[in-house]
Write a structure and sequence with these properties.
This protein is mainly beta. The chain is 0% helix and 55% strand. The strands form two sheets. Strands 2, 4, 5, 6, 9, 10 and 11 form a seven-stranded mixed β-sheet that branches. The N and C termini lie far apart (40 Å).
Amino acid sequence: QVQLVESGGGLVMSGGSLRLSCVASGSTLDGYAIGWFRQAPGKEREGVACNTRTDGPTYSAQSVKGRFTISRDNAANTVYLQMNDLKPEDTALYYCNARQTGSEHWGQGTQVTVSS
């Protein structure tokens, strides 16, 4: 059973940067597709960025393309989301996700608030 714990959220001004971390325990993340999702108040959860396998390509939502970068460090069993040039519309609760055939795991989320 994989447990995921996110950290790194906070309050930042528009144009600022944050790096979110997601530490996994209970299993290695190698072999899992990993991703970051977010949910703003009153809106549905949406995918932000994902990486389907170690050393594989990454994918980003159009709304964050060129600003957000997903990465993983399998040795540290950690997933990162580097967020640059943050905008007020990026304000949301950010979740880490790990998935492989037959199982899917979520963290508890970390809040990101961007002030204008």
